[in-house]
Specification:
mainly alpha, 434 Repressor (Amino-terminal Domain), 2 strands
Length: about 80
């Protein structure tokens, strides 16, 4: 199961609230703008380290991760 669209919506809303473009936010997170776009759309399965970088840059409360589990490959799964 890929990361669900709720997390993607939170990422997009947080990015827009901070007034960041997709390009600027992705650069600050150290990922490509296409990767961030896919996360926002719920079409990506990012690694935990990527999720944590995004959360730090966009000031997302990582408490939302309490309902998530992780695979052996450290992929972020909503479960």
């Amino acid at each position: 199961m890929y990361i669900n669209q709720n997390f993607g919506r939170i990422v997009r809303d947080s990015r827009e609230h901070k007034g960041l473009t997709l390009e600027t936010a992705s650069e600050l997170c150290g990922i490509s703008d296409k990767t961030l776009e896919n996360i926002e759309l719920g079409d990506s399965n990012p690694k935990l380290s990527t999720v944590m970088k995004i959360a730090a840059v966009l000031d997302i409360d990582i408490g939302i991760l309490k309902h998530c589990s992780f695979t052996e490959k450290e992929e972020f799964i909503i479960g």
